[in-house]
Amino acid sequence: MTEHLDVLIVGAGLSGIGAARHLQSEFPKRSYAILEARDAIGGTWDLFRYPGVRSDSDMHTLGYRSRPWTSAKSIADGLAILEYVRDTATEAGVDKHIRFGHKVIRAEWSTGDARWTVHAEHDGEPVRLTASLLYLCSGYYHYDGGYQPEFAGIERFGGQVVHPQKWPADLDYTGKKVVVIGSGATAVTLVPAMTDRAAHVTMLQRSPSYIMALPSEDAIANRLRRLIGARGAYFLTRWKNVLVSTLLYQLSRRRPEMIKGMIRKVTAKQLPPDYDLDTHFAPRYQPWDQRLCLVPDGDLFRVIREGRASIATDRIAEFTESGLRLESGDTLDADVVVTATGLRLLAFGGIELTVDGHEIKLPETLAYKGMMLSGVPNFAFTIGYTNASWTLKADLVSEYVVRLLKHMDAERLDQFVPVNDDPAITEQPLLDFQAGYVQRSIHEFPKAGSRRPWQLGMSYAHDVVGLRYGRVDDGTMRFSRAGAR
């Protein structure tokens, strides 16, 4: 017999563990399982193993709402975050519900049965489960490998080429010349981290990104923790950081020249006198068109001041046997080249969805409140904020799913499905974000609508009101009982 579960969660990373914790707390008698394609808890924080891997969000907002972050460091390294996620799972007993090595391939919804039939693979063998609710917490990028452009002559390079998503455990760069290609969050993390052993590290960028220094420790949070305890300090610090980041984002969108000037002034103070800011630290786009890069304690600027790292702003003409030749004619010698050139997006882990035998083509669907799909029953997913911590949205999605299930229990309902019957709604990209990794693949994702509830909002404060307290039965969400037509 096929095993049936009330809720099937896909993904045992930050989102999946949080979702399971919410469901288990509110519905202790409901059956659930987490299917995880890999062999460990942690998702992103278990996958990435490159030097210095860390969050570019503070842990008072990246942490779970109900489990305070108590470490002195607010900008945490990857290992600390991984331990936090795993400890959360163990503490709640969620880890006992995880089935590792289960890669979900396909999910089929039957309206007559009011359930999903989920097909997965485990050790090369097919696995089939059914579930009343399918909840995808698989993130939105490809776990099998990152994005790497075609580089002329790369096959004749005599050194080693490494992508951060596939970092070799035995890579020894001691005393070697390293070139890191890229200017995003991964690159600005790798460059200072690799200077501990490398002879020199060069960050090669086609164009600059906005980079801001932030203290690794939040002095206010640490003082509050001593005065009022961990839980109260966490609550106040979380909202303090939400409000500060929201203000910075709104000013970036409304008064970009002011924010550009502020960032430039702060950057100039941390670099050597007469440093060429216009070449290396003056992006062509406006602040928050792409994600703002944060460097804890200004570590990137420090290693540049000390001469252990440098920045080259140019385009690659070709790889040579000993490094790279740039379009300007300059050359960079390298023993190791790190291609921090971005991610590849993958919607819902590549899972095929069908509803009553009809294939769901994601670009033909609209995202309801940024967490469900038009015409797809009993289905939820998590996509976090691009301008704030991922977990802020993940927690709200879990809370909303709980509210939805409680409503269905009270009304003795079996099915829910968002329906767009407003001809005035126009389609828009799901993510209004100019980063290259988004622009390369966003056409493969569901669409957003021109107004609520068909938008993926990027305001935590607005979402708190709408998702935590707004109506569940809002006229767009349709409910029914099994077998009802």
TrEMBL record:
Gene3D superfamilies: FAD/NAD(P)-binding domain (3.50.50.60). GO terms for molecular function: flavin adenine dinucleotide binding; N,N-dimethylaniline monooxygenase activity; NADP binding. Coiled coil: none annotated. Keywords: FAD, Flavoprotein, Monooxygenase, NADP, Oxidoreductase. Belongs to the FAD-binding monooxygenase family. SUPFAM superfamilies: FAD/NAD(P)-binding domain. This is Cation diffusion facilitator CzcD-associated flavoprotein CzcO. Its cofactor is FAD.
